[in-house]
Amino acid sequence: MKNPEVAVSVVRTKGNDYPLIKEAVDEALSLIGGISDIIRPGYKVLVKPNLVATPTERLSGGVTRWEVCKAICEAVTEAGGKPFIAESSAIGVDTEDVIFVCEYSKLREEGIPVIDLKSGGQQPAKLKVENPALVSELDTWQIVADADAIITVPVMKTHDQTEVTLGMKNCKGLISDTNKKNFHFLGVVDGVTDIISALKPVLTVIDGTFGQQGLGPIFGETIEMGLIVASKDVVACDAVASLIMGYEVDDVKITVAAASRGLGEKDMDRIDVKGEKIDDVRVRFKRSSEVAIEGVPPSFNLVWSDKACTGCRNTVISVLMDMKKENLLGLLDGQYALVGHHAESEIPIGASPENTVLVGRCAASLGAAGYGRCVIGCPPGNSDTIKGLIGESAGKER
Ligand code: SF4
């Protein structure tokens, strides 16, 4: 017997023009019973896209397309709410640059506020986390704390640390860079469930038109899915989307942890999937562990700490792509690169001060003890990281 309150809709889009995207979003919302029960007249409604980093192309599947957010904002307005879009991109990324490249400036011109949380002017605020798994308080902004309802609007992507990044992980963009860094250090799974516990998003709408497989969340391969997935239960929405991506629900630790905290439903016997059947739309996304960057010598040892956060992860992958273009990858032969915080006992056998680079401020703490050359920065810049990888200490704090 299905629990009718836990509905997830899966709708195919019929094209990429705005009216067709809006039609799919409207149908997805209608299949889950509309939004008048969660959006009351006068509500300030924060719509949170995934604008984690500047993509090479806005429909590369790495970021939420503006059409989905616009359709949601129109639905919110029809329900009497006052929508606004807000985001803070990954550490080291200029959110305004992402807003511009992803054409969200169009929405500003149409009168929909699009707010870069990190730029000056936003008042900081604290949010209490009840029964925390990691932190009792989150650093956010007043405009986030004052929202009457939050709608998370992720894309469908693989992630090198958490298998997938969907509705729950998308909410990390609503906390400060300091919290983001600490969460990677202390535990991203518990950190994300603390965020969901505090922010309580009332609706998830996944922009599954284009996603990313492989080296997600930024350097993945674009995969066209042509889907919108929606639910008022963020855990159930993530569970269904991860099944569509070819995972088992329990492969995704954030989903398991959130369900065990009572933040939503992950039991497929209690989730009513409306619209398309999962089996008819499922595509196995390539895992990030299944992708190697062509040309990287097998003798190059890239050692990630599980505490390394998006800033350093993106920098290192982006640097390897740059080095590939410049035919520099051969210089990595026999080198060790340690990224993120490592204890001395975790230094791999074979690494020596001569062949080891410590990438980023977290790893550089081992530099003082003479374990290798340091690339300073949080995250370090690309050119400094290249210098470090090919033999020089480099960088400055950012
Ligand atoms: S140095 Fe790198 S891993 Fe450490 S907090 Fe900064 S960006 Fe994250």
Task: Describe the protein.
The chain has helices at residues 18-31, 66-78, 95-101, 105-109, 142-145, 167-170, 177-186, 188-199, 234-244, 253-260, 278-281, 310-325, 360-364, 382-389; strands at residues 7-12, 44-49, 82-87, 114-116, 124-128, 137-141, 149-153, 155-159, 163-165, 203-213, 221-231, 272-275, 301-304, 336-339, 356-359, 373-376, 394-395. It is an alpha/beta fold and 398 residues long. The chain folds into two domains: 7-281, LarA, N-terminal domain (Rossmann fold, 3-Layer(aba) Sandwich); 292-395. Strands 1, 2, 3, 4, 7, 8, 9, 10, 11 and 12 form a ten-stranded mixed sheet that branches. Helix 7 (177-186) crosses helix 8, helix 8 (188-199) crosses helix 10 and helix 12 (310-325) packs across helix 14 (382-389). The mean pLDDT is 92. The site of iron/sulfur cluster has 13 residues, from helix 7, helix 12 and helix 13. Iron/sulfur cluster is lined by residues 91, 181, 184, 308-309, 311-312, 340, 360-362, 378-379.
Strand content is 15-25%
What are the low-pLDDT stretches, counting only 5+ consecutive residues below 50? none
Radius of gyration: 21 Å
**What small molecules does this complex bind?**
iron/sulfur cluster
CATH class designation of the largest domain: Alpha Beta
Describe the oligomeric state of these chains in a short phrase: single chain
CATH arch. level architecture of the largest domain: 3-Layer(aba) Sandwich
- Helical proportion? 25-40%
- Output the CATH homologous superfamily of the largest domain: LarA, N-terminal domain
Distance between termini?
A: 54 Å
Number of strands: 17
Indicate the overall shape. globular
Would you tell me which CATH topology of the largest domain applies?
Rossmann fold
Structural classification: alpha/beta
